[in-house]
Design a protein that fits this description.
2 strands, two-stranded antiparallel sheet, globular
Length: about 625
């Protein structure tokens, strides 16, 4: 009797426990749940402990409350719950890219944002063992959080080093010469255009900060793992030409210094080539010592350049009647332009040409912003440092306008549009009989500016593009040397002969060529993929990968790229004097005046339409 009473009591306790577990089910289903409990308890003991059976049953009843009747649920294991990390990595992906597995090689740390990633969240780890050797090497691998070394000061120094250079000096004076606009208008255009440029730079830098990937790897998400070579080589070719232009500037500076120091006249005919080779080798030495040497050069160059600019500004102003008088004189020149008097050629066409040239000046850096942001410690740090660029640009432009104007007054020249800072130094040296000291200081400043700008802006991008062709065979060092050789073969000294060629042909032309790439990548990353990339697939040649598309090429992005280029092609052919003015429609001529903005718009819109509707 005791045993029977104990058995019934035990069964009653089990029934009570089970009913307590399923109490969350709807009240009208509790009767069915009780019947199932009775059925289970009346059966012989299962081979596993009854508590396990009860747990399985309670889980089944809780998930399938509407199902009724006796049923053995032990054969159906509980469904695996999707992990939070899986849903975060998947995000809002289109049905075409939906996958059944998740990326375990990359882990983005975010505790509470399954639909997006916080701006400061970066990649913590990456397993390169499953990456394809044809798409991956150590230099193209994501830079994880623990390996990022660029602070806010480092990035700001980078921007200052890029701003203070001879082409930036030439840009301001060329803008004044192009449309006979005033110094105040030229300075205003430079400031507004560079302030606007910060926005696309920050946007394009976002995937580099979040995933630690360079520009050529980011381009794989929109152009395909193979098609990204088109975007990378396009950007790399422009940078290689810029490298050649900057190296020519450095070579001229060395030649001027050598002549002032008394080099034998018999060597003068060979000085151009010799100085070019010396400066080329100096840059190769810095590049061969990896990214840390580049960061060191930028940190040292920024304060030196600012100090030398300040000295030159202060001296020229003091020698021409004081700072206030010099500034007023510089900005009162060409004042008739502002009033629209006769003889002024200023027009809105000139305004848009100048704005486009200012934006195109940074077109290369906008495209490959992730090449630098991948080393930044956080998104906030990079954004703060990026605003150093427009501030440094307007300060440098202001100094260049005042210095050139003051130098013209001191040396009694007829023009204050001196486009070469070496000419400024030479005029001052002759007037004040400075001798060799002025030549040495000028050479140090210009060589430091050219070296810092060339290495940061015109070597990293083409090097990454070239090694992306065969990552298993080409290292960053080898690719950088190849890009430097390519820059020399482009004969860059023929591109900066006059202001018209510099503004309309070179700056506007390459800006129009790179703008569609930027529009496509921004549209793809922010509008189509909602800032979510499958990091593993960026390094995979699997035909089922999210970015393999058709044989590794996204032909829709290629078509959008072509549409963006053709929108500005007639205007470019007119600028290089291939297409006569009579054959160029007015709307296309106006489009080329805003070539960079037109290219970004048409490239991005075309990519979005093709991706959405075709």
């Amino acid at each position: 009797m005791d045993n029977d009473g104990g058995g019934k009591k035990k069964q009653q306790q089990q029934r009570t426990t089970l009913l307590f577990v399923v109490v969350s089910s709807s009240s009208e289903k509790r009767h069915d749940a009780k019947m199932r409990c009775d059925h289970l308890l009346s059966r012989p003991p299962p081979p596993v402990p009854r508590l396990c059976a009860l747990a399985v049953l309670s889980s089944s009843v809780h998930r399938r409350g509407r199902r009724s009747g006796a049923r053995d649920v032990r054969a159906r294991p509980p469904r695996r719950r999707r992990r939070l990390g899986d849903s975060m990595m998947r995000g809002k992906r289109t049905a075409r890219h939906e996958r059944t597995t998740t990326t375990r090689e990359s882990r983005v740390v975010t505790p509470s944002l399954p639909k997006g990633v916080e701006s400061d969240v970066v990649v913590e780890s990456f397993d390169a063992s499953k990456a394809s050797s044809s798409l991956h090497n150590e230099d193209l691998s994501p830079v994880i959080r623990s390996k990022r070394t660029f602070s806010t000061f480092d990035t700001a120094s980078l921007w200052v080093g890029l701003v203070v250079c001879v082409p930036a000096w030439t840009l301001v004076s060329s803008l004044m010469a192009l449309g006979n606009i005033s110094a105040f208008m030229a300075l205003s255009l430079v400031f507004v255009a560079n302030l606007f440029v910060v926005w696309p730079i920050v946007l394009q830098a976002s995937p580099g900060i979040k995933y630690g990937i360079p520009f050529v790897v980011h381009a794989r998400s929109s152009f395909g793992v193979r098609g990204a070579n088109v975007a990378g080589l396009s950007r790399g070719l422009i940078a290689s030409v810029w490298f050649g232009i900057q190296t020519v500037v450095g070579a001229k500076c060395l030649k001027s210094l050598a002549v002032d120091l008394g080099v034998s006249s018999s060597l003068v005919p060979y000085l151009d080539g010799l100085c070019y080779g010396i400066f080329w080798l100096a840059q190769a030495y810095v590049v061969w010592n990896d990214i840390e040497s580049i960061k060191t050069i930028e940190k040292l160059a920024a304060p030196i350049l600012l100090f030398l600019t300040l000295i030159l500004f202060t001296f020229t102003c003091a020698s021409s009647g004081g700072i206030v008088k010099s500034v007023l004189t510089a900005f009162s020149a060409n004042s008739s332009v502002m009033s629209g008097s006769s003889g002024s050629s200023f027009s809105w066409k000139t305004f848009f040409q100048a704005a486009t040239a200012s934006a195109s000046f940074w077109a290369t850096m906008i495209c490959n912003a992730s090449d630098f942001s991948r080393f930044s410690k956080s998104d906030t740090s990079f954004k703060k440092a990026s605003f150093a660029m427009p501030l440094a640009m307007v300060v440098f432009a202001f100094a260049s306008i005042v210095v050139t104007s003051s130098t013209a007054q001191i040396s009694n020249t007829n023009s204050n549009l001196i486009t070469d800072p070496m000419v400024v130094t030479s005029l001052l040296s002759v007037h004040f009989n400075w001798g060799k000291i002025a030549s040495v200081l000028a050479a140090v400043g210009i060589l430091t500016a050219t070296l810092s700008t060339n290495i940061a802006a015109n070597i990293l991008a083409p090097a990454n593009a070239i090694q992306n062709l065969a990552p298993s065979r080409l290292s960053f060092r080898t690719s950088a040397i190849l890009s430097m050789i390519l820059g020399t073969l482009c004969l860059p000294w023929k591109l900066t002969g006059d202001a018209s060629s510099y503004i309309l042909v070179w700056l506007t032309g390459y800006g129009a060529f790179l703008a569609p790439i930027l529009g496509i990548m921004l549209c793809d990353y922010f509008l189509i993929r909602n800032k979510t990339l499958m990091l593993e697939d960026l390094y995979s040649t699997d035909t089922n990968g999210a970015y393999f598309f058709t044989n590794g090429v996204n032909y829709k992005a290629m078509l959008a790229f072509a549409i963006g280029i053709f929108a500005n092609l007639p205007g470019f052919l007119h600028a290089v004097r291939i297409l006569p003015s009579s054959m160029l429609p007015a709307c296309l001529a106006m489009a080329y005046d805003c070539a960079w903005f037109v290219g970004v718009f048409f490239g991005g819109v075309a990519h979005f339409v093709l991706y959405t509707f075709f």
